Amino acid sequence: MSMNEWISAGALGLIGVILLVMLMQYLRLREIWQGLGRCREALRWARIWESENRELKRSLRAQRRVVEELKEQVDRLQAEQV
User: Fold this and answer.
1) 11 Rama class: left (phi>0) / alpha (psi -120 to 50) / beta
2) Interatomic CA distance for residues 12 and 80, integer angstroms
3) C-alpha span between 21 and 19 (Å, rounded)
4) Concatenated DSSP letters of 1-36
C-alpha cells in the first residue's frame, strides 16, 4: 500500500468516527428534547391544576360565608322564639 492509500484509509476511518460521534450526539439531543417536551407538558398540567385549585378555594370560601350567614339567621330565629 502506498502512502496515499494509507492517508485515504485514515481519513475515511476518521470520517467514520466523526459520523459515529455525530450520531451519538443526535440521539442524546433527541432524548433531551423529548425530556423538555415532557417537562413542558407537566408544567402545563401544573398550571391547569393550580388554576382549578384557586377556583375551588374561592368557591369554598364563598360556601363558608353562606354557611356562616345561615347559622347567624338560625341563631336569630331561635333567639326570637325564646
Assistant:
1) alpha
2) 102
3) 5
4) --HHHHHHHHHHHHHHHHHHHHHHHHHHHHHHHHHH
> How many Å separate Cα 31 from the centre of its chain?
16
| Cell numbers given for 46 | 401544573
3-class secondary structure, 65: helix
**Which of 4, 37, 16, 79 shows the shortest CA–CA distance to 29?**
37
- Report how far residue 24's alpha carbon sits from residue 52's, in angstroms, rounded to the nearest whole number: 42
Q: What is the pLDDT of residues 8-60, one digit of tens each?
A: 999 999 999 999 999 999 999 999 999 999 999 999 999 999 999 999 999 99
State pTM to two decimals. Answer: 0.58
Owner of C-alpha cell 393550580: 50
